[in-house]
Amino acid sequence: MKQTTTRVLYVDDEVLDRELMRDAIEHAEQSIELTLASSRDEFERAIAEETYDLVVTDFNILGYEGTQVLAQVHERWPQVPVIIVTGTGSEEIAVDAMKKGAADYIIKTPAAIERLPRAITAVLETTRLRREQRAAEMALRESEIRFRRAIYESPVPTMIYAEDGEIVTMSRSWELNTGYGQRDIPTVGDWVHRAYGPRSDEVFDRVGGNPGAATPHHGSELEVRCKDGSTRIWTFSSTPLGALPDGRSCTMTVANDVTEQRELEAKLRQAQKMEAVGRLAGGVAHDFNNMLQVIIGYASIAQSQEPDSPQIRTALEMILNASSRSADLTRQLLAFARMQAVEPRTVDAKAALDGIVRMLERVVGEQFSIECEVATGIGQLHIDPSQLDSLLANLVINARDAMPDGGVIAIEARSETLPQRMAAEHDVDAGDFCMITVSDTGTGMDQHTIEHIFEPFYTTKELGLGTGLGLSTVYGVATQNGGFVAVESEVDKGTTMRVYLPWCEGRDSNEETRADRVRDDARNERVVLLVEDDPEVLEITSHMMRRIGFQVVATGEPQHAVELMNDGIGAIDLVVTDVIMPQMNGHELVCALREIDPNLPALYTSGYPADAIGPKGILDADVHFLPKPFDQERLAAKIREVLEP
What we know:
Structural class: alpha/beta
Helix content: 40-55%
Largest sheet: 5 strands, parallel
Radius of gyration: 48 Å
Number of helices: 21
Distance between the termini: 114 Å
Strand content: 15-25%
Shape: rod-shaped
């Protein structure tokens, strides 16, 4: 391997010493290229024209001191070592030279000059080691700067702290997320105290673990209190990083903000719970309404016969009243589940709301006043008017009950453009909505109550003062019509309910309520085909139809009804069919019958409308529906409506 040549400049005005130096260099083991300078001019010319690995200089050069040579060399090449040799053995001169940066100081003797090549090698090795050390220190400083910057710029809240709790560095995302900077929390103890208050001792180890631990620590999920009083949900992971330069152990703790994730999970759980309750409500409604149908049917027939006994008349009234309340309860459950059958029509929002408010003013009581502001020029809604009545009535009654000492109920209706973010949050289409706001200054609600208010049977009222279905109904009406409900409330500061309903687009506004007209002279000539799979409901419905003057062909099997039509039982003026039946549902039955008689009118009945009638229970324009339970009077009116539009 080729040996590296070391370039040395030797400055000395003594001829004999220069020759001794040259002779020593020639016999040296290492490869040294020697340049000689005998005066200040030769020295300055040499350093101006060439570069050197090391400079050796006499202390006195014709009045020019070696320390001046040292200064000029270091001015040009700060890293080049300089060895000073002198015949003067003064310690003061040696100390001064070393202070000024000399790499070595040698007393000039012939023997010392002979050993000078070895001294040169030693100085160059020492210089190399120092240079490498400085480079390593510089690289370490640069690495630390990059590391601190990486920590500071980390999008994830990150903190490094020593074993005594001192926070060495932290990311700015920590401050952005919590409001606490390093000046606010110089130690981990300060952070835990501010974030957890009285719980700081309990959670300290769960947040950061032991700074001296040898293995990573994954802390628990904890709620963090921010500087502005808000709370976030964080999970913590801590990793030991070894020792700091001062010997203290240090740990890096990384926080993961899962607040939004937990909120979305909570919303999903709530939605799943609401859906499960809705399915349960729909399933119960079918059988329950069939039973109520039998009770109401026979009770209404008995009542129509006007019994002589006052006790019997009173009992029948109580039976019918209790049955009616039970039917209302089921309808509210179905409204919550978005499964009740509705007949939406185009409704002028301002006119409808003005009419509802006038009615509610008579209901709420004298100690309450309703302030209503409905924006002029607002559009039309496509909704069942009874749903709109129910929605606003429930909101106003809730507001009234929240103010036991009376007060003002504020109602506002205006158009609101829903941004994409808010629309996605509530699973609706972005665009313009009718926003109906009902506000009170009553007792308000805490967060726990807000999370449950739309659940059926959840109520904060005393026993017997509420069923807990009012806001469930509001929720069901809003969602069934493509909208949603937003709630703002604070304990002792009142509540604001905002219902968003989409505006009507391209609907036919010429829908009219059909009059209940009767052609008494034609009633006995009309034949109704009744199809109902529940024997008791079939019997009572047949009985009621005959009492109101219709001829009835009744069957409990849809296929049998088709066979009867095929066999030519005679002219059928109307088919009345249950929706949910085995083998064939009501819609399929009507389609089969209309293949025989295309103009056959149909009336559907059901205690559980579901999708057999229309999406989300919304009736098509050409569908006639009578929800169970119904009494004789309602049955008669609906049949006449179908037959005599």
